[in-house]
């Protein structure tokens, strides 16, 4: 298993989401009755409340898979770096790639982070995302 990148960014959840899928999560049963149809996420950093639809959860699941791949690629490079300065520069590049991947999927970083936080707290949301990721 490759180590998770530790990326210092205001949207720290973005980095935390990388590598967070565990076998226990993917084995949970899917939610009953469309529990993920529409939820309200906690206020984002700017204080706005984000509406989470099933479509946004699907987009999040796709973005999260991309972040896991970016993490795998950069973790190997960072481990092989020759000094701390090079590793720091690579972490910044990885962070930039992760942010771009989230945006290219159609989410704002604040939306991604809000869904990430919901995924950590809510077993039904976690199960729905795990199902979407299969």
Q: Name the poorly predicted regions.
A: 1-13, 15-37
Helix and strand string, N-terminal first? HHEEHHHH
Distance between the termini: 20 Å
- The largest sheet has its strands arranged as 1-2
Main pleated-sheet profile: 2 strands, antiparallel
Structural class: mainly alpha
Overall radius of gyration: 15 Å
User: What average pLDDT do the residues reach?
Assistant: 75
Based on CA inertia axes, which overall geometry fits? elongated
**Strand-residue proportion:** under 5%
| Count of helical regions | 6
Strands, count = 2
**What is the helical fraction, as a range of percent?**
55-70%
Question: Would you kindly provide a written description of the structure presented here, covering whatever features stand out?
Answer:
- This protein has 134 residues and is mostly helical.
- Helices cover 60% and strands 4% of the residues.
Keywords:
single chain, 134 residues, mainly alpha
List the SSEs and their pairings.
Layout: H1 12-17, H2 23-26, E1 38-40, E2 51-53, H3 54-79, H4 84-105, H5 109-121, H6 123-132
Antiparallel strand pairs: 1-2
Helix pairs in contact: 3-4, 3-6, 5-6
Please provide a brief summary of the model.
The chain has about 130 residues and is mainly α.
């Amino acid at each position: 298993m490759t180590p998770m990148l530790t990326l210092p960014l205001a949207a720290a959840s973005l980095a935390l989401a990388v590598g967070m899928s565990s076998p226990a999560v993917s084995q949970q049963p899917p939610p009953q009755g469309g529990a993920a149809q529409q939820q309200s996420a906690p206020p984002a950093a700017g204080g706005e409340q984000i509406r989470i639809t099933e479509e946004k959860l699907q987009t999040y699941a796709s973005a999260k898979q991309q972040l896991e791949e970016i993490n795998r690629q950069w973790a190997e490079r960072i481990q092989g770096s020759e000094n701390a300065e090079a590793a720091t520069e690579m972490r910044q590049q990885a962070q930039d790639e992760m942010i771009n991947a989230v945006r290219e999927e159609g989410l704002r970083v604040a939306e991604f982070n809000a869904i990430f936080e919901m995924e950590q707290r809510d077993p039904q949301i976690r199960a729905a995302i795990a199902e979407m990721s299969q």
